[in-house]
Amino acid sequence: MLVTLRLMIDLHSHILHAIDDGSRSLADAMTVARTAVAGGVSLMVATPHGRSSISSGSRYSVALLHERLEELQGALDRAGVPLNLVAGTEIYAEPGALERLRAGELLTYGGSRAILMEFSLAIAAQTAEELIASFQLAGYRVVVAHPERYRFVQRDPNLLIPLIERGALMQLTADALVGLQGTQMRRLAELLLQHGMIQLIATDAHGPHLARMPNLAAARETVTRLSGSEAATLLTQRIPAAVLADEPLDLPAPRSVGHRLTLW
What we know:
40% of the residues lie in helices and 14% in strands. It is an alpha/beta fold. The protein has one domain: Metal-dependent hydrolases (TIM Barrel, Alpha-Beta Barrel). Helix 1 packs across helix 2 and helix 9 packs across helix 10.
């Protein structure tokens, strides 16, 4: 898949309507799309929550996902909104998820070998590492959604280093970095960023009903201020494009946090 680098790429969104806890209607999805485009996003991956043990009542199915995506993309094209949509799934990592992915019941990023993975917030670092390894051994590149939310990371960010060293990519949520999730989360997000523990930034936008709208431009400005413009381009353009294209990455090693956190 060829992806332009002129504008930003958002690899995590719940823009699709009436499929999970994201956009409630096509009109809401259009509002999310227009907000994303106004903020400089040209490509957005729709990653609704896949069926799992914590979402047994979900309406998710791959067929419904494609139906909603086709409907929304058509509406965007007719309205002249320059946003390209790509299909994906936010996969809840648990026993059986790999088998569902292999069976086509969950999706990779746009048909690539990369997947978006989330965990229970209370997961242990070792369990997360084992689950990631199982997908990697099956040939998938793992992108970890919102690492800042996991309690093991909040207690000791250095526990992310082994995951990163074995090839997992950490995807920080824009809201956390710009302070919309509180001062503690912002400070943790900045700490992770400045120690090389973040490889991607995405919005995890859900829609106006939750006041969780795309804000990748604000996050990019924050990255530029903290780490420079080259880092901002890497996290919002070049690395996301490489993920979608299954291209190799040569990333700087993460740096250990040398002091004890007092955020939580």
